[in-house]
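Record type: monomer structure entry
Structure origin: computed from sequence
Chain ID: A
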Amino acid sequence: MTDVALITGTSSGMGLFTAVELAKRGLQVVATLRDTGRSDRLRAAAAAAGVDLDIRALDVVDHAAAAELVDAVTRDHGHIDLLINNAGQGNVGTAELLPMSQIRSQLEVNYLAPVNLTKLVLPGMRERGRGRILTVTSVGGAVGQPFADAYCGAKFAVEGFMQSLAVVAERFGVQVGVIEPAAVASEFVANVERPSDAGPYTPLLAAYIARSTGAFANAQSAESAAVAIADAATAQDFRFRTQTSPSATAFVSTSLADADGERVLGFTRPWIG
């Protein structure tokens, strides 16, 4: 029986290449994106790889639409064996600059949407006694960073949710984990929300943007990150936490071994000058 994978956020970047990579490995991939009118690159990449994808529309923040999609995929393919919550949104801004609407938006896309889809696929996986749920978070899900208050807050939240769920879900044969990329060359940066006027924070934000620009200039390729995601999705030896590159592993380790929090603060202070 062919495993069925449902992936969100596949119009570009890691999502696009992960969908194609999993299809190359023999999975039936249901690739979702908010606007199927933007699926040309996805279709071209699938054609170039000689694989077929089931491409469907999904705005992940529309929970009713997500429920309808899961029902339709289950009806059409019989089951969902793998969920990859890949859709995400970035945000730059510190607390005083952030309108509550942007903070809520970060929670909707980066936290509540993956939680909702996880809840939707869990019953079927539990009943079959097998399944795997992976959420693409970020090194920002383990390391709080300047001017990423809302983004890191949402990513921390989803990692906490998934880590709490993992030990319960595994009792029913369902494996839950997170994928933590560092900087990845994609359209993610172009889509980041950012303040038009940083006021007294302007020089600090400028230093942070300059540092981030350098990081993304040497970013991991989306293709390479997708291979790491596909490896985690198909691995025999499953782990809750997976980074997509050695630099991501080193970065996350800074926080996970930081009992009092000072290691991370000392690491990130120079980012803002």
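Annotation 1: Residues 100-128 form the longest helix (29 residues).
Annotation 2: DSSP finds nine helices and nine strands in the chain.
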